[in-house]
Structures are given as C-alpha cells and as structure tokens.
Known about the structure:
Blueprint: E1 2-4, E2 12-13, E3 19-20, H1 22-34, E4 41-43, H2 48-53, E5 60-65, H3 68-71, E6 74-89, E7 106-110, H4 114-128, E8 135-139, H5 142-150, E9 156-160, H6 161-170, E10 175-192, H7 198-211, H8 213-220
Parallel strand pairs: 1-4, 1-5, 7-8, 7-9
Antiparallel strand pairs: 2-3, 5-10, 6-9, 6-10
Helix pairs in contact: 1-7, 1-8
Amino acid sequence: MAVALGSPPDDFRNEKGEVVGWEIDILRAACEALGIAFEPRPTTFDTLIPGLQAKRFDAAIGQMGVTVVREKVVDMIGTLTGNELFAALAENPIKVESLDDLCGITVATTRGSREMVFAEEHNPKCVAAGKKPINALAFADGNGAADALMSRRADLFWLGSTAVSYFVAQSKGRAKVVGHYTDTSYIGVAMPKGSDMATPLQAAIQHLITNGTYGKIVAKWGLADAAVKEAPLNPTNALK
C-alpha cells in the first residue's frame, strides 16, 4: 500500500514516527476484514498513479480526489467526501471566490496534485486578462505547503479540505479559510486498472460502514461531517 505522507489528519508520521491518519485506519481495518496484511509504504503524492500503472503498488492512498481523469487509468473507491480549500494568514483580507482571484498570487500546494493542474490550466486566462499568472509552489507534502504559508513564502495554502481544515483548526487563530474551489466530491483509495483487489476491497470498506467501524474512525479524526454512506467503485459522479 503506497501512502503519500502529508499533513494530518490524512496520512502522516506521529511523534513516534508511526504512519497514522484516517485513511490508514480505514485501510488497515479493511485489510484485517479481508485477512490480508496491511503494509504501508511511504512515498510522495506524485509517485502514486505512476507507481500503480507500473504495478509497483497494489493500492495507494494520500487524500486523492476521485476524478474522471484518474478513473481512466486507475480504479478508485470513494471513502470520504471533500473539496479544495484555501487558507491564508489571519491578517490577510484576501477572499477567493474563483480562480481569477489567484492571478498574480503565490499559492502553496503539493506536487502532482489537482491544484497544480488547476493553476496551470487557468494561467492562460490570467494572462489573457492582462494579469500575472498564478505562482504555484509545489511541495512534497502538505506540511511543506502549510509551512510556506506560515513563513510568508506563499499567500495561500491550497489543498484538500481535510488537510486545510485541520491545519486551520490547529493554527491557534493564526490562519483562516478564505474560500473553496470545486464541488464536493469523493476522496479515495486507488488501485491498478482492472485490479482483482478492487471489488473485495470495496466490499470490505462497505462492511466497515455497515457495522459502524467506519463511523468510529472518521469521528475519531473529526471528519464525521465528511463521511460516506457507501463506498462506490469508480463513481460516475466523480469530478472531471
């Protein structure tokens, strides 16, 4: 199991050096239900899909949004809901209502993320409007991106809602959420396309939802509001 380490509450190392997080708890419980070993292999987000395509990993997690583009090359099971949020320092009056508001702004996110793609795709629109392009700084993980905001190397921290919400809650008032981008969609676990593991793993996660184990896990990490009632395989309502 490839795990893109980042910032809590997703997948990260605790003070003991252990790999923990809500996705870790769910996948460990699902593997136990299937009677198979759960062996997390820490890596970076940008290696997840290439590693799955090369069959180096059986599965991968890392606060990965379920999208139509990704479903073309890997199989995905939705395990939580979320969207992208923007955080700024508390004293910054900036508000983000659309990507147009990012033109000329320095944002911090992670390598291989949807946020980097969104920024790159929007930059021609910034230039066409006579504005400077979005200056997107890509870091290996969410901690690096959050640090860039706190050290004022970036105006905004832009990542998935679980990571950004947790970061703001732990900032003791030093940071705030200033906007969101994309509709709510699934976050999930990915496997090589056509993997024999997809259907059994989906059934195991659904079993955790049904017996209440899933609910206890997401509540433990403060994510009850983002819980799913079913774990869809390659959902048709994934984001484009």
